From TrEMBL:
Gene3D superfamilies: Tetratricopeptide repeat domain. This is Pentatricopeptide repeat-containing protein. It comes from Nelumbo nucifera (Sacred lotus). Coiled coil: none annotated. One of its GO terms (molecular function) is RNA binding. It comes from the Eukaryota. PANTHER family: PENTATRICOPEPTIDE REPEAT-CONTAINING PROTEIN. One of its GO terms (biological process) is RNA modification.
Length: 204
């Protein structure tokens, strides 16, 4: 194997280790591994940075995440949708919703799935105003929201006592031809499967 091939294989191994740490929430350990990678003059690629940003996101390391994102330029890596999604996810997780929204607007391409992640954060933190703004962006791009998103928006406005907005979101859901599917559970008794619908007193 040529030297270039060995170096790429070596980089893949480092990426795999960083990704593993990210998956299990070991943000600081992933950053230390990245330092070791640089000490050995192994040039990170876009996958490395996705793993690092994900690690920081799951560990709530806001300052470190910003530093990692900004360092992509030092290694000639052009941030892609995945990199921005990690940043928006972290800022949303810790409740910095306005920063997350500003970060998303600064993207040079369509936000796509990033909008959905930001909307989820708005719903979790109860930011009705930004949730409505983001929802309208999603509707402009995709035509409608999911049934769960419509229901969560309606419920959130209802919790704030804003019944008109709550009714509007339910009406929009109905006009979009979307119905809320009842949740169900299944259990096995004596070799026979039984299904229970949410709110159902019987099984079948």
């Amino acid at each position: 194997m040529k030297i270039g091939g060995k170096r790429r294989l070596y980089m893949y191994c480092w990426n795999a280790m960083i990704s593993g740490l990210a998956l299990h929430g070991y943000g600081q350990a992933a950053l230390r591994l990245f330092d070791g990678m640089k000490d050995r003059h192994i040039r990170p690629d876009d996958i490395t940075f996705v793993a690092l940003l994900s690690a920081c996101s799951h560990a709530g390391l806001v300052e470190e995440d910003y530093q990692i994102f900004e360092s992509t330029e030092d290694f000639g890596v052009l941030p892609k949708m995945e990199h921005y999604a990690c940043m928006v996810d972290l800022l949303g997780r810790v409740g910095l919703l306005d920063l997350a929204y500003s970060f998303m607007k600064a993207m040079s391409f369509e936000p796509g799935a990033v909008l959905g992640a930001l909307l989820s954060s708005c719903l979790v933190h109860g930011d009705a105003e930004l949730a409505e703004t983001v929802s309208k962006h999603i509707i402009d791009k995709a035509g409608c929201l999911s049934d769960g998103e419509y229901m969560m928006l309606s419920n959130m406005f209802a919790l704030h006592g804003r019944w008109k907005e709550a009714d509007n979101w339910r009406r929009m859901m109905k006009e979009a031809g979307i119905s809320k599917v009842a949740g169900c559970s299944t259990i096995e008794i004596n070799g026979r499967m039984y299904k229970f619908l949410a709110g159902d007193g019987e099984c079948g």
